[in-house]
Amino acid sequence: MSTTTKIGQILQAIVEVPQQVIRYISTGAARAFTPSNDNYPATGVQPYEGDPPEQKHF
Question: Is residue 48 included in any domain, yes or no?
Fold first, then answer.
């Protein structure tokens, strides 16, 4: 391998590595901020029907 080829590969790596990092981060951000694909049934608002608190006797 000649010196020119090595320098060319180093310069190419200097350009490609930041592009790969930006692509990696932007892909994750795109996944985080896109609408979800959850297929939940359209049930509307459901009231909370929890257990009433126990009555304490003093």
Answer: no
